[in-house]
Amino acid sequence: MNDYLVKAMAYRGFVRAYAVNATQTVSEAQKRHDAWNTSSAALGRTLIGSLLLGSTVKGDDTITVRIQGDGPGGAIIATSNGSGDVKGYIQNPHVSLPLNEQGKIDVQGAVGTQGIFSVTKDLGLKEPFSGQTPIVSGELGEDFTYYLAVSEQTPSSVGVSVLVDTDDSIKTAGGFMIQMMPGADEEVVAALEERLQHLPKVSSMLDEGKTPEEILDFIFGDEPVAILEKMPVQFKCDCSKERFASGLISLGTQEIQAIIDEDHEAEAVCAFCDNKYYFTEQELAELKQEAVKGNT
Ligand SMILES: [Zn+2]
Q1: Ligand 1 centroid, distance to 90 Cα (angstroms)
Q2: Helix (H, G, I), strand (E, B) or coil at 170
Q3: Could you say which of 3.30.460.80, 3.90.1280.10, 3.80.10.10, 3.40.50.1820 is the CATH number of the domain covering 241-295?
Q4: pLDDT one-digit tens code per residue, 107-141
């Protein structure tokens, strides 16, 4: 089954709901970055949260989530857009910690408990919107929830989870985001919060074969859920050799000449997707010419 996200509403539109199966997306990220289990879960949860946030913006508009905690995983960065594409990386993909006291993957241990959770939204306006909150948990679902409540003043509940197999491959990955609109009935909010407290992890529900639609039905119980949109999601990076060439040109002629003298070639690696781009000595010489033009 291919990954997809559903957008829905309930309680006459006072509650918006999103759910996503991102198993293949997180699996692709795990393979590209050769991520070990704890790093995979931390990166995967960030990718899922980014997809959920990204599903609230239009087409090409982007959302970048940066999590800079004090754990061994280092920074985690993910960028998504309104079309369901997401890319991302974790600074140290090789973190594998013992399970935590609950017998779960210790994401908090990899992320840390102190640091900054920030989101930048590029909505095609002059200035991108940017907000940040402190890391409150390091388990990430709570951090997304806290960010939305404090920075965007949207009472929400975000659940993100990744089930990693014993061979480090991704078994299932997914999440949900429930948002209360202004005017939502307080009893409704309380009842939902109560249900969410006792909700099994999304990755477990996916592992049982539940679809994103069925996960929302499960969350809302007897309340009908109206599905508004179903959108495919995928790991997709927008890097290209041209983009890295522009980066080399911007280094300037001296720097390019230094690379030619020392290495006679250059290899650029995309941090987001691990794709490699090679530049021969001839190509570097051409880029140097471009840099000369740029200077005059
Ligand atoms: Zn890339």
Answers
A1: 14
A2: strand
A3: 3.90.1280.10
A4: 999 999 999 999 999 988 888 999 999 999 999 99
